[in-house]
Amino acid sequence: LLGAGSRQKNLPPGPRGLPLLGNLLSFRPSHLLSNLAAWRQQYGDVFCVRIANKLVVVLNGHKAIQDALVKQPEVFSDRPPPFRDSDKDQGVAMAQYGEDWKVKRRLGLTALRQFGMGKRSLEGKITEEARSVCDVLVEKNGTATDMSLLLSNGVSNVICAMSFGERFDYNDMEFQRLMRLMSELVSGGGVARFIPLVRKLPSFKKDQESRIRMSQEVIDFIKAKIKEHKETFDPADIRDIIDVYLMETQQQNPDEADRTISEIGMINTVRDLFIAGAETTATTLKWGLLYLARHLEVQRKIQEEIDREFGASPPALSQRGKLPYTEATILEIQRIRPIVPLSVPHTTSTATVLRGFDIPGNTFVIPNLWSAMMDPAVTPDPETFNPGRFLDENGSLVRPEWFIPFSLGRRQCLGEQLAKMELFIFLATLLQHFTFKLPDGAAAPSMKGSLGIVFAPKAYQICAVPRDD
Ligand code: HEM
Fold this sequence. Notes:
Layout: H1 29-43, E1 46-51, E2 54-60, H2 61-70, H3 73-76, H4 99-114, H5 120-140, E3 144-145, H6 148-164, H7 173-187, H8 196-199, H9 202-232, H10 241-251, H11 263-294, H12 296-310, H13 324-336, E4 346-347, E5 352-354, E6 357-359, E7 364-368, H14 369-373, H15 416-433, E8 434-437, E9 450-451, E10 455-456, E11 462-466
Helix pairs in contact: 4-10, 5-6, 5-15, 6-7, 6-11, 7-9, 9-11, 11-15
Bound molecules: protoporphyrin IX containing FE.
Residues 92-93, 105, 108, 159, 272-273, 276-277, 280-281, 284, 339-340, 343-344, 367, 405-407, 411-415, 418-419 line the site of protoporphyrin IX containing FE (HEM).
């Protein structure tokens, strides 16, 4: 281990950067994933770069990610420090690794489970929401549509029901504005903005200011919901996730300073669940429909499975095991376009040794999930959409260990189970009723996407053609 003041002799190899900027210019979102892939080829699975003055270690391939996040969890589970002092009390997703994060994560999981994650009661709500999306599509009658907002509305309503106990009408203007805000929030903001020196650059500063404004609007919305909940709170009737948090704060010492979770911590955690719970799954569905529209033969096979197992009844999660091709397609969508390809940034809590390299404490760490799932060594022809890669010779589903869209280790996605429920029900319900096609004569949509916090497809139009036509 590196002792204080010792020379850093054996850092991982990596490209030389420019004076002051380091490798910052290679971190432009449009080229970042391919630059990282080229560096991996040259320097191996663990390499380091500099963003401005900050050392950044990039972990490539699932084994290196596992060696760090799973085998050394105490070292590799921290997050970069908050941008501003006023942001010290983070929600769960950016909380520093330690007691505070543990409390928030435990509460988050309890709340998600209590309000249905993994349970049948929630399945009904998801199905209802998927049907509402279908109802809107019926009215479109197969005409070209941008489904972005519609999918965000549908998926967000599930987490709204869990968090606030209410769903919103898709025409509700306040809800629509919130959806647009959240989508904008996660479409911008690459990893470089976590580096303090980079945030001082004028273009980043401006971006940061607008992000703070947008984030504040989401927070104001959540604060208003918490206020309403407080007015009607009854400890004998816990209605939703906000009530779970109110219960926790009520049970504790009324003196704010002694609470395990503060008011701000609670607001930020609900915001995290709300944003992570909405935009991630919706974006996966947006990629999914785009790939399916280009692969009608895949849709046909899924529809055969759905028709065989469910007929006209709503697709049920308990029967998922009988639809291996549908399941394989969902895995393939998450593999070919992982919506958080570089995970959420990690930081080392202390100095350590990883695969023989010295890694100093407080080093910025990027788990490159993309590299694990788009690696030609384990997924031949990685840019080819092929659900068959997740099926064995008997047609049974296989889930390889390199399939890690939810990351690994102690920070692994908190909502994985919810996301899986939603992906299956939304996709199966949509394909039960419609075949998705690209508009006749339109230019082929780009499959490249744009990388922000979330990796999303560029806007595209699609026709949902009713199946009974
Ligand atoms: C964290 C992926 C849906 C809540 C993460 C991380 C990834 C991820 C890669 C970072 C893990 C790390 O730091 O190494 C996804 C994908 C989703 C999805 C691919 C959908 C397809 C959801 C949903 C929720 C959720 C539905 C909750 C309602 C969270 C939270 C964290 C997180 C709270 C932070 C965990 C922590 O820092 O301890 N997710 N996620 N996610 N996710 Fe998800």
